[in-house]
């Protein structure tokens, strides 16, 4: 079995024997015997070639198509991405998490890997979909995420900027849009025209101290 840990805040260590999935090219070092293989279609989640193809098409259409490699063997693998901060989330049996594909570094093989519709992102780079990971096993499974700076974990109820969100547990958020005015279209608003609202008690939301660039930038100085 493979388990994840963090070292130096900037690297994930995958220890043990077996197989897991990681962002392609994220390996920076390893000890032991491992084989690294790019997955053209992604994990099949037990659905064979048809399941892998369907999942690949879904991720391609939704923009959640992170380049993935399969890592199999025994020993230790060190993973990192552009000196981003690394955190490991331990999913208990039955738990799930939504993660932005650009913030997903690695996950254990037994997790179900798919996409889910969120319903926001008209102007935001956050997009309409997110990557969905669920633990359908009887053991704890690991997910490694990366953030641009030290992340902050907030418990619902809360509202967050779509361009700063990294991951969340529980139900998908509601989209709250501010009343439109002429200032909205010439870039003279506060920049907080809409946000994601999480209402489920105990729901955890992870954000990063860095916002993605908005998809629309029209302004008058």
From TrEMBL:
InterPro entries: AIM24, AIM24_sf, Trp_RNA-bd_attenuator-like_dom. Coiled coil: none annotated. It comes from the Bacteria. This is AIM24 family protein. It comes from Intestinibacter bartlettii.
């Amino acid at each position: 079995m493979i388990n994840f840990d963090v070292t130096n805040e900037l690297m994930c260590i995958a220890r043990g024997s077996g197989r897991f999935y990681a962002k392609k090219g994220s390996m920076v070092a390893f000890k032991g015997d491992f084989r690294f293989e790019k997955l053209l279609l992604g994990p099949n989640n037990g659905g064979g070639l048809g399941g892998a193809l369907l999942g690949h098409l879904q991720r391609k259409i939704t923009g959640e198509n992170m380049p993935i490699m399969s890592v199999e063997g025994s020993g230790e693998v060190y993973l990192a991405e552009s000196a981003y901060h690394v955190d490991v989330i331990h999913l208990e049996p039955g738990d799930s998490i939504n993660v932005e594909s650009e913030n997903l570094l690695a996950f254990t093989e037994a997790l179900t890997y798919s996409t889910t519709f969120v319903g926001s992102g008209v102007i935001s780079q956050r997009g309409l979909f997110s990557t969905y990971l669920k633990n359908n096993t009887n053991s704890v499974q690991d997910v490694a995420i990366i953030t641009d700076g030290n992340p902050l974990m907030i418990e619902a109820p809360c509202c967050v900027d779509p361009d700063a969100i990294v991951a969340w547990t529980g139900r998908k958020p509601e989209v709250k849009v501010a009343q439109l005015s002429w200032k909205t279209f010439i870039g003279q608003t506060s920049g907080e025209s809409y946000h994601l609202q999480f209402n489920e008690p105990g729901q955890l939301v992870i954000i990063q101290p860095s916002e993605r660039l908005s998809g629309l930038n029209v302004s008058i100085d």
